[in-house]
Amino acid sequence: MSARPAYARRSALLVTGVATVVTGVLAWMPLTAQTPPPPAQGQVAGVAPGVVLEAPHNHTAELIPGVIAAGETVELLSPNVQSGDGIIGLPDGSAVFIELRDGLVTRIAPDKQFTTIAKAPGVKSIGADAEGSVIALLKDSLEIVYPAAKARVWASGADGLSLKTCNDFVVARNGGIYLTDVGQYNQPKYNQPTGVVYIPKGGKARLVANTTETMALPNGIVLSPDDKRLYVVDSRNNSGMVWDVQSDGSLTNPRAYAKYRITEALDRDYTLQANGAAVDAEGRLYVAMPLGVQVFSPAGSYLGHIPTTLKIQSVSFAGPKKEYLYMLAQRAVWRVKMTAHGYMPRAK
User: 2-337, what's its fold?
Assistant: First the structure.
């Protein structure tokens, strides 16, 4: 374990293009594609060419009853993250995220100190098991990468469906894992197969939802606190979907869920909208969006917005009582004290 140097402030971020994050090979359709590198220096995925992004800074939250108090500071913890994605909360109160370009797993301690805890070249997203071990989604496998003493392969595409085009995942109470399969990342909407993959603990991966005709880009994925509903964010539509979870891990009753608030300006400036997601202990859904996080009731009603400067990639509760909401952009990370708390057994 090695200490990270302090992060330096940046005065501005200039976007010069749009880069893809994940492509690959679908296991259930004969396609071949290479996974491109993370965005180059100066590039931000999901942002329209030529858009100049405001320098990250602190914000002030507005009241969302039961969720966040008016006037809470949305605190910028670092303005110099490198290709940030996939933030989760661990049982020790820390938040952990990945830096895609360098394949680093970075820990933010409750006292806001940053530390590199693992290297995982090619990592696409992370999660955690019930003991707090960090699981990384790599090219075609899920592997425990922290702590080092527990490192092992959790599941491999060689044992079932390929995981090469999967992008995000969530671990259920029973140890099963649900993953979103994004297909061919930047193809026209509905032009490539997409879906949800399930891997039972100790079992083989299987497709449990084919979303080709209903989701343009399934991305962030999270379970309700009772594990009875599975939510999937769609990055290229104005809402996501939810399913009922059955005892064998299968999914039923698919339906649209949580209509995002997308203004004309957001639609113009951002080629990708919603990204990661988290839930709180009451079952409210938190969706990472351009310029902040949108909050929805368990029934899918819009409750409000928590502001940030940049497009948020991933969101998670962390802290000793999961009392903080962490919001991660590709270049920066914020946290804010919440009225709502995260669901303790869940990593996000």
Answer: Neuraminidase (2.120.10)
**Mean of pLDDT values over 182-198:** 86
Task: Locate 326 and state its tokens.
Answer: 């962490």
Instruction: Report the chain's mean pLDDT, rounded to a whole number.
Output: 87
In the chain, where are the structural domains located?
A: 2-337
- Residue 54, judged by CB atoms within 10 A of its CB (0-12, 13-18, 19+), counts as exposed
Those residues with Cβ within 8 angstroms of residue 188's Cβ, 6 or more apart along the chain or in another chain? none
Reported confidence tier of residue 43, pLDDT bands at 50, 70, 90: low
Nearest to 95 by CA among 305, 315, 345, 337: 315
137 closest CA partner among 195, 81, 197, 212: 197
User: Which pLDDT score, from 0 to 100, does residue 320 have?
Assistant: 96
Q: Which residues contact 30 (CB under 8 A, 6 or more apart)?
A: none
Sign of the alpha-carbon dihedral angle for 26, 27, 33, 34: positive
12 burial class (0-12, 13-18, 19+ CB within 10 angstroms)? exposed
Length of the chain: 348
Look at residue 159 in the predicted model and tell me its pLDDT: 85
Quote the Cα angle for 343-195-314, to 5°: 40
Distance CA(276)–CA(107), nearest Å, equals 18
- How far apart, in whole angstroms, are the C-alpha atoms of residue 318 and residue 41? 29
In 3-state terms the chain splits into helix, strand, coil percentages (rounded to 5) of 5, 45, 55
Provide mean pLDDT across the span 245-260. Answer: 97
**For residue 148, what pLDDT band results from cuts at 50, 70 and 90?**
very high
Above 60 in pLDDT, residue 206? Answer: yes
